[in-house]
Amino acid sequence: MKVLFDLIKPALWYLGVIAAVVYGLHLNRQDGYDEGYNLGKSDGDTEVADLRQAYTKEKQTTAEAATTAANKIIADLRAEQAKGNQLASQLADTKDNLRKTTDKLTGEIAHVTKRYRRALDAQPEPLPVAVFTTGFVRVWNTANGISTAMPTPNGTSGAAAPPSGAGTADDLDSGVSQAQVLTNQVRNGERHGICRAQLNDLIDWTLNESR
User: What is the Cα–Cα distance from 68 to 45, expressed in whole angstroms?
Assistant: First the structure.
């Protein structure tokens, strides 16, 4: 038995050495794996943190740009509203002044269409009646953009009559007085003044927008 143990003793010693070497290699490999895993995990965590930081920064930059753009749009809108309010106020003032002028001139119509003087030192006398033919009224209305026909005393229409010729409807008395003609002109003047003011405001607004 002793002889047999002596024979296998060297083999057991070699097996122990081999086992120790294998175990050492295993430990070394495990340490390398753990070190590599920890290094990779650390690098991955750093990369993820950098990506999150970059995303947060990009998101903040986008939000700031959107806020800036929205503020600019609001500022531009307020500026346009202020400009529009200013133009509307100016137009309202112009209309008010034109209305005051119309009221003032309308109040003078009765005075300037009732009496007159042949000279500065002459006594006032009734103003002679002026005859405005249907043709006169037709031309007057057409020039002011009014296309309605003026009825004549005999029921015919001035618009349908020929422009010339003895006895035609255009030659008849329209029945329109001097005061009516002047009243019409005063009102037309107010309307034309409003149109001019609106056109001027539109031109000013267009010129400002093109700058």
Answer: 34
Residue 109 token pair: 């119509």
Cβ–Cβ < 8 Å for 152, 134: yes
Cα angle 84, 87, 88; round to 5: 85
Diameter of the chain by CA atoms?
175
pTM score over 0.85: no
Helix then strand then coil, in percent of the chain rounded to 5, is 75, 5, 20
CA distance 96 to 174: 33
Q: What pLDDT shows up at residue 24?
A: 61
Produce one character per residue of 165-180: b if its CB has 16 or more CB atoms within 10 Å, e if not: eeebbbbbebebebee
